[in-house]
Amino acid sequence: MNKSATLQHSVAAAPPAARPTPKVEHPGTEALRMFLRNPSAIAGMAMLLLILLVAIAGPWVYPADPFEIRSAPLTPPFSEEAWLGSDYLGRDVLTTLIYGGRATLLVGAVAALLSVAIGITLGAFAGYYGGKVDAALMRLTEFFQVLPALLFAMVVVTLFSPSLVTVTLAIGIVSWTGTARLTRAEFLKYRGLEFVRAERAIGAGNARIIWKVILPNALPPLVVSATLAVGAAILFEAGLSFLGLGDPNQMSWGLMIGSSRQYVLSCWWAVAFPGAAIFFTVLAVSLIGDGLNDALNPKLRER
Predict the structure, then answer these.
(1) Over the stretch 96-139, which tens digit does the pLDDT of each residue have?
(2) Dihedral of CA 134/137/142/145: which sign?
(3) Helical residues (DSSP H) of 14-163, grouped into ranges
(4) How far is residue 252 from each of residues 136, 163, 260, measured CA to CA in Å?
(5) Which of 10, 48, 53, 257 has the greatest CB tally within 10 Å of its CB?
(6) Residue 233, phi then psi, degrees to nearest 5
(7) Helix pair 253-260, 93-129: axis angle to 10 deg
């Protein structure tokens, strides 16, 4: 055998070079990377963190009683007596703004959590079991959906006396229908897939399939819905407080606006500053929700 034939034989006998295994990125890591690449989402996160920092750390840095009369009534902003002015009673607007953020953000977060918990539970049962269970739960959802949400919340708060607890419960009770419908749609999509049938074949119970198999796969749109529910709950709380149905013993941004609405022409700053706080808070939450939607939605992720 000549040299060229030997060379060809050795080349043919040599094993093919191993191709590098492509690195598969974890879906959570990919979603986080996409979220951090979204300038609007980062701006919303920065705004929300700043608002939370002021609301949480403000009372320690600037200790005061938000209901205390600290200067002459209707003191204009940027004065020595009050940096952001005073309201019609002489209460410092900066102090009420800092302390009011705590109640507003707390009610918004807890009410949104309550509404999402109710919506996910009812929607999961309706979508998984189907049949009569689905029909009954959807009729219940439709009943709450056609009720005037604000009017129903006003009735609940009035019957049980205005407080942070009753306001939170009222908002959570009337605002879960959208999450329930979204959860039902996701469960209807996943309950017939192969991995769910495989879990059922190996003897997994309904509770495990609902909460540990289907729900984790249905979470991305539900996370976005929960984020946006926080902003809606903050606006709802501000509306109830504006109508005088908030907790009179707890300062909130809605209470600031509602108590000064009759003096808006002569004391615009007492309405404008808490209104701006509500606006930027809801804007920040909305930007974060849009960023999560883009990061968690595979179709939008490819744009």
Answers:
(1) 999 999 999 999 999 999 999 999 999 999 999 999 999 999 99
(2) negative
(3) 27-36, 39-61, 93-129, 131-146, 149-159
(4) 38, 12, 13
(5) 257
(6) -70, -35
(7) 120
Please enumerate in sequence order all residues whose Cβ is within 8 A of that of 209, keeping only pairs 6 or more positions apart, or say none: 128, 196, 199, 200
Tokens standing for 47? 């705004």
Cβ neighbours of 218 (radius 10 Å): 21
Using CA atoms, how far apart are residues 199 and 196, in angstroms rounded to an integer? 5
* Angle at the Cα of 43 from the Cα atoms of 40 and 48, rounded to 5 degrees: 125
User: Which residue's structure tokens are 């492509």?
Assistant: 22
77-80 LR contacts (CB < 8 Å, sep 24+): 77/269
pTM equals: 0.83
Count of H-run helices and E-run strands, the chain: 14, 0
**Token match 């093919």: residue?**
16
Determine the 3-state secondary structure of 41 from DSSP.
Answer: helix
Cβ-Cβ contacts under 8 Å for 199 (sequence gap 6 or more): 208, 209, 213
Joined together, the tokens standing for residue 303 give 């744009």
Q: Report the distance separating Cα 41 and Cα 229, nearest Å.
A: 17
Please give the single-letter amino acid code of residue 59: P
